[in-house]
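hey team, just a heads up i'm posting the complex here instead of the shared drive bc the drive is being weird again. everything in one block, sequence lines first with there labels, then the predicted structure for the whole assembly after. its two chains so it's a bit long, scroll down
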Amino acid sequence: MGDINDKAAGFLPLTEATYYVLVSLVDSRHGYGIMQHVASISRNAVSLGPGTLYGALTNLLKQGLIERAGELESEGERRKVYGLTKLGRSVLALETERLGRLSRVGGQALKKSGGKK
Amino acid sequence: MKEMMTKNVFRVFFDMTGQKEEIWLSEMASRGWFLKKVPLVFYRFVKGDPGEWVYRIDYRGGAKVDRKEYLGLFKDAGWEFVTTVAGRFYFRTRAGAGPAPEIFTDKDSRVAMYRRIIAGSTTLLVIMLIDINSVLRNNRHLNWFSGLMLVLFCALALLFAVQLVQIRARINRIKKGQHQAAPGKAKSERGRAV
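-- predicted structure starts here --
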């Protein structure tokens, strides 16, 4: 288990786009599903362009953080489905922990300074 | 039956990132000329109803592209595939009221595309330099034709080299957050893009 965490740590920090893709793939999805999911969980605040998404998926496949999980046919289109690998899940967990730590530390510091903005 | 009106336009862009080309293609569309094909040195347009369209060019280079998946993602995101030539993919979408939509929504993926352009043109530059070198080595047989070719090749190689330096500078500007978006190249209207 320590091995996989050591390996996972090497991928940090993630770009925001990569993080959103990994978060979306906690459940298997196709590319279109990822775009829709990202829009939904960010309440349309974040959009993922197709060039950016294709690049992210290609890189993540190559790095072994995600894998193909069959195909899905809907609305007359066949789309490839992706899911997280074990390594991908560890990377996501580590990065989430790291971001949480940062957010906590930053929040405390701001609060201490008396809510000045 | 009305026959489709087409025209070929010869035009060379020295800006390899494609930004000037994208703007030009939008202008052509607003005058009713729609890009159909790019048979290398010229552009083939088809006449249609003038409209506001945004064009975007992605450079994939020699790397293997999972075409079905790649084009599928663009289609799902609302982009229509126009044509492809020499590793470049042309897409278009209707221009909305807000800022133009983007195919790259973060710095990293845009920089990655510029790096692919640099890699592709460096290969071409090296091939040119080897050619120039071999012509110079055989300069006993230099005639007016090979001389002319040599001058042309040297000029082209120089242009390529200048381009490489410029794209490199643009990458540095993007990384420092000073990237100046070209007209019609602003972020997506649906809030922030990553």
